[in-house]
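Annex B. Sample input.
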Amino acid sequence: MSIKQQIIDKALEIGFDDIGFTGTEPFTSQLEFLRNSDYSWTKRIGLDSERFIQPTEIMPECKSIIVLIYRYLRSNIPASLSGHFGRCYLNDDRMTKDGLNLKVKAFRKFLTENGINTKLAAAAPDKLAAARAGIGTFGKNCLLYASKSAYKSSFIFPIVIVTDANLEPDSPSIKTDCPSWCRNVCIAACPTKALQGNGSINLERCISYLSYFGNELTPLELREPMGMYIYGCDRCQNVCPRNQPLLATMMPEDDRITDMSKNFLLEKLITMDAEYFKKFVHPHMFYMPEQFIWKWKMNSARAMGNSLDKKYIPYLIDAMNNEDDERVKSMAAWSLGKIGGEQALDALKKAYNEYSGAVKGEIEAAIEKCHYFSV
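Annex B, continued. Sample output.
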């Protein structure tokens, strides 16, 4: 049995859904894509997306690239989580290192034992690498879809590993493979119009980007379109015809995810302190460090408003009156106006003379909205 076949067998034995191989040629088309798209924001957060289009930047002696596919949607996700968080974040163990991380370690250990040196290429263009390795194609929503495994869905993690072994590359599958009969449902379903319809995305309008990047109060025109999502978004994946076979599958319950659902309730997020954040939130969703707790609370307040559920009014009143961050106060006021009712209106009127500037403006607009819908 060839070493390549042994590697394939080991990957599937460990629990990966698929594996492919490609050469170490530079990802020049990715460089063209980055330069023709608005990815300047990546440098603002310390990511140099252009650097790692060259595999030798990761391992100078590299000779081949292995790409693994792992399906992250394997268990039932309670509505209290799937309605507020992108599913991929519920299974991201880069901090806890207790799931996929262990599988990757086991796979790399096998390669080492067979005399193959490796580097995990986390910053490489993973979607393009998977397509070059013949195990993925693209969707109009700019996501990667498994070619043969994982119900051919986009609920997958591609893992790129650079090696010093000469391994025969597989035939590439670099193409958009959406069915001809699909009427661009992902593009139509994107409420913030982030999907451009030409295989590109305006990330600064994407709900996922908006939920964890940026330092400002969410713009007024995007608050309702962002809906109930707090961290991440699955709108384009949920409506995609290519994902329906997996979404229709009966999946087992997962005690870990059930426990998470108890800790990620909106009322717990909007009232959490630093200790709660470190213990329950950051280990799973770590793009925002402790100093961004305000953004978690702002996003939770917005989701409360969009829920139209009056049970959240006391939490929003407390946030408006007692939170230190003006962005949280402002969003709480907006949400009180969105939900409306006498209790919300009374709280807004009482707070009106306590503030000035942006917060007062939000309170005034919320009062007007309450009056409008009470007529």
